[in-house]
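Q: Predict the assembly, please.
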Amino acid sequence: MPLWQTSRHPLRPLLALTLVALLALAPLAAQAQRPPEPPYFAIRGARIVTVSGPVIENGTVVIARGLIVAVGTDVAVPPEAWVIDGKGLTVYPGLIDSLTTLGLPAAAPPGGGAASMSEALQQAARQPIARGPEDRPGTTSWENAANNLQLSDKRLETWRKGGFTSAVTSPDRGIFPGQAAFINLAGERPQDLVVKTPAALRVNFSPVGGFWSFPGSLMGVLSYIKQVYLDTENYAQAWALYESDPKGRERPSYDRALEPVRQAQAANWPVLIPANLTKEVERALALSAKTGVKPILYGGQQGYEFAELAAAKKVPVLVSLKWPEKAKDADPEADEPLRLLRFRDRAPSSPAALQRAGVKFAFYSDGLGTPADILKNVKKAIDAGLPADAALRALTLSAAEIYGVGDRLGSIETGKIANLAVADGDLFNEKTKVKMVFIDGEKYEIREPSRPKEPPTVNLTGKWTLTVSTPQGPQESTADLTMAEDGTLTGSVTGQRGTASITSGWVSGAKFSFTLSITMGPRTAEATYTGTVEGAKMSGTVSLGPFTSDFTGKRPDAGFTLNGFTVNGQL
Amino acid sequence: MKRTILSALLILAVAALVAPAAGAQDQVTLIKNATVLTVTRGTIENGDVLIRNGKIAAVGKNLKAPAGATVIDATGMYLLPGIIDCHSHIAVDGGVNEGSIAVSSMVGIEDVIDPEDIDIYRDLAGGVTTANVLHGSANPIGGLNAVIKLRWGKDARGLLFEGAKPGIKFALGENPKRSNFTPPPGVPQRYPATRMGVMDVIREAFIDAREYRQKWQDYQKRVAAGEKNLLAPRKDLKLEPLVEILEGKRLVHAHCYRADEILQLIRLAEEFGFKIATFQHVLEGYKVAKEIAAHGAGASTFSDWWAYKVEAYDAIPYNAALMTQKGVVVSINSDSAEEARHLNQEAGKTVKFGGLSETEALKLVTLNPARQLQIADRVGSIEVGKDADLVLYDKHPLSVYSVPQKVLIDGQVYFDRQQDIARRAEIEKEKKALAEKDKKKDEKKEEKKPEEKKPEDKKPSAGVSEEVTR
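A: Predicted assembly structure:
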């Protein structure tokens, strides 16, 4: 017997203690900084906006084992529940972003990263050339979003902080990018996020080819989609006949592109089809009729024109919240067509028009960078005539219903999944902050990042040209910043690889700091710029993960206007 | 006595024909006192045209308008059948060419009609009421066409010319053989790169189409014979239209220039047993007019474009006249949203170059394109029973000074020049107001209510792009 196992070894008591200590600490280490929480929560005395019924002014909601077990004014709270005082708080169903790429690794942008035309051409050359529909261009219909989820996507946290608890996520590149999944925005493992999959099959009208590869035109894309559905019919028939009597029959080949389409047709999955303008809606409906699919249209920004048509065809619409805007650096003297001016003016009134016509619709972020931007744009729709409760429904129950999970999510009702957003006021008020969210009954508190409290002494609003020194040389990018009165910074930074939104930022005195969420290949990371401002120049350090570099920034035109004349340079 | 009764009945019958009472739902318009250029039945000075429910109900003099009819006083003006542009690329979204493959018969213009293209309005204002919207000329066999009426304001389906025989675009010569000539490094060049390659692509496509048709006929025979559990052949959207051509159900509009390729295509078509409906551009058509006439194809050409590429060097402005004299049904087209606005003047050039009569010249942009598109039973001349697609000019349409004043399609006024002028100030005001709103939004972030929607307001504005592949 080894000496250390005998009771006479001098270090044995110490060993025993260490072992016990390690065992005790192990579960804590595995769960990072989360202390064990009770299975029961209750929020008492809050304003509860159920969405499915009237608002409960002074109510209680009880959560247990991931579900809502009770909601109302006179509700018994179990003694073991962790009670949250709801005074001054409003409880909403967790918000749902009805079409995103949250949780999915960012695909390489189609023309992104190319520094010049010749590089773009070379990139195009490296893609396989499709010589017709048989080559299945832009088709990855077998990709199910549920199989590729990554919890490391920083956007999941950003969305949660804004009160979002669920989203529909889908691959988005190509003509048949794949299958969408309805997910919750938090969980222990990627598979725990999935609420329903496949939530829909997705179709895109992007001509993936160009002049050297099929299809290079919109009509090419539409004919390809029609051909795929015809081929699927033939494929389904071939396999059905073979399975019913294989003896003597040639075996049909397996086609991984057609198999998901066959399943979609057999199980009547909805199909996401892009349609922003009225003519595109008509096109999408014609395609649906031709192929026999059940469409969910996404885009919807000319709803003020096509609302009646959508109502007549009983087709649901996902409205993009990225309202059309004039480009920031557009020539102010340019003569724009009246049609474009009208579209920009009326687009935010589309949700109101859809609602009046009785069309079922939901909202999606369409690339907006932060929940604050999302809610701001919902507010624009409310200002253009959409009732606030209809806006809320479009962010919650309607989104769930469109994807067939309205029986388990989207409102605060007994028996539904406990996805809640708890805010300190009305959700559509800019000053309101989301205090915590519940996802599958787990509480996620939202902590304000600590920031110095001095009022700003400089104004950062406007464009800045940033130069970061890297081992590869100086990298330039443009920052477009908006500073609020209290010093909160919002905006975006545009570089060679695209645009990233500021997820949080502040200005205090002449010091500032802002954080971006950057996608690099399959990962998202955060970059934080910290520095000081002097006149029209700024300087500081930027940290990206473990790397830190210096950066400088200046206004693109270090000039000013005096009595209507623009003066360049300093006086 | 009998004779009196008979004549009385006759008079009543004629009276009934000439000025029938308007029914409760009838839409009646009377165009009065114009010089009516019927194109097929001569010219009527101080003539009237009565329109009922979109069709021409009567043509003559001193017609009576029933109560409730709209009367258009056309004194001093000229009435022409609506112009038909046999080669147009307007109103197409997302590209007019699927140039990645040599045979793109699976794509169709009807899928991508853009009803908001301002070129529709501009060509309408130039007197065009029907257009044959074609695929581009990048491919030996291109995509399917769409024949549309320029009913500005209707949606994509509302623009389609109901019942028009479907068509397809072919292209010979420099354009198809030069498409994809210099792809980026690593990308193979698209076949064909020569004229003989172009003919080979067409020939092989029809051989494939024949085999495809045979497969389906065999399958249908076996089904008809009672066989069960048969797998149908794969439906191929590329080959279906080619089978329709072989069966005479789809019109072939073939872009071509040189005499040799025109003859090659005629021989290929006759080899496979089908007819070319029209040769488009066909600038050397005058050299092989006899052969074109013998084959039975129409020719749709330019008035006087020439030498913009090598295969256009031998073009002459007498082309239309010479082919007409040899018995070919000739039309003059635009292939351009800009040129389409003055096709009446283009037609006029054949009076100088070739000595065509005024009526023959006017036929080049009215009855002849209608015959080529096989819609002459509906449009192309001012005759009782045809669609009321009409243009009112302030001067004779063959005059360079003439400007269309009103354009009617199906009896409805879709363009009115005086109304257009009157609305311009209103439009400028709306544009300015919206632009101001945009600016204020940027400056102050104020919230405003959206304006009232005006459903008929679609007006010309700046910025038009046209893809010209001649």
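The two ends of chain A are 91 Å apart (CA to CA). The mean pLDDT of chain A is 87.
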